[in-house]
Amino acid sequence: MRLLLFGPPGVGKGTQAKLLAEEFQIPHYSTGDMLRLAVAAGTPLGQAAKSFMDNGQLVPDNLMINIVRDALTSPRAARGFILDGFPRTVPQARALTEIFRDLGDAPYRVISFDVDVDELIHRLSSRLVCPKDGKIFNRDLDGLGAGTLCPDCGSALLQRDDDKPETVRKRMSVYREKTAPVLTYYENLGLVFTVDGAASVDIVNREIKALAEEHRER
């Protein structure tokens, strides 16, 4: 199973990736995960990336692509993987296509999470975070509010600036502007499958698994 997940922040990619990774015993890689693994391993690529990160600079495309190549061709990913947050540009997508060719052109699918902007704003603006351990609560489901004490540790819960309505709209605009060309690239290859990001976790999970099983049987 090889899946590429696309969708704006808060749409549920992380939740689905975790469920699928646990069920199928395959790694879930985000861009940040791959960078941290490379840095922690002290590889030449990791050391090069660290120098950019320590200076507050973005890791260049060619370096990031090689880090992705190392992760996806490692024994850990031999049975498949879930890729989240990469590629972010069309050149990265083309480079990833070359990596997949090196892996033997094994089948893969791009899962695009579609969600209404107003629904996403409501979902994200309902999130509250514990500043101590980062645990996330939901204003509606948990009956809590900003400033309410965390049920686990007693710290005052807060709403992150990234989850405020005006910020969410800006993040959605940037996501669509940057990601639309990448999705078009994969649509032209006939690889994109869209799921309703507003549906329940169980429904989205079943849809993705049905697609994955269908693809594995081909």
Report on this model:
- By secondary structure, this protein is α/β, with parallel strands linked by helices.
- It has a domain at 2-26 and 79-115 and 175-216: Rossmann fold (3-Layer(aba) Sandwich).
- 51% of the residues lie in helices and 13% in strands.
- The protein has 9 helices and 7 strands.
- It has a 5-stranded parallel sheet with strand order 2-3-1-4-7, with helices on both faces.
- Strand 5 and strand 6 form a beta hairpin.
- Helix 3 crosses helix 4.
- It is globular, with a radius of gyration of 18 Å.
Topology summary:
Blueprint: E1 2-6, H1 13-24, E2 28-30, H2 31-41, H3 44-54, H4 61-72, E3 81-84, H5 90-102, E4 109-114, H6 117-125, E5 127-129, E6 136-138, H7 139-142, H8 165-188, E7 192-196, H9 201-216
Parallel strand pairs: 1-3, 1-4, 2-3, 4-7
Antiparallel strand pairs: 5-6
Indicate the overall shape. Answer: globular
Percentage of helical residues? Answer: 40-55%
Structural class: alpha/beta
CATH arch. level architecture of the domain at 2-26 and 79-115 and 175-216: 3-Layer(aba) Sandwich
The number of E-state strands comes to: 7
Distance linking N and C termini = 12 Å
Strand content: 5-15%
The first-level CATH class name of the domain at 2-26 and 79-115 and 175-216? Alpha Beta
Any idea what the CATH superfamily of the domain at 2-26 and 79-115 and 175-216 is called? P-loop containing nucleotide triphosphate hydrolases
CATH topology of the domain at 2-26 and 79-115 and 175-216: Rossmann fold
- Assembly of the depicted chains: single chain
Order of helices and strands: EHEHHHEHEHEEHHEH
Quickly count the helices: 9
Residue-averaged pLDDT, rounded? Answer: 88
Strand order of the largest sheet: 2-3-1-4-7
Task: Outline the low-pLDDT stretches.
Answer: none
Q: What about the largest sheet? A: 5 strands, parallel
What does the radius of gyration come to? 18 Å
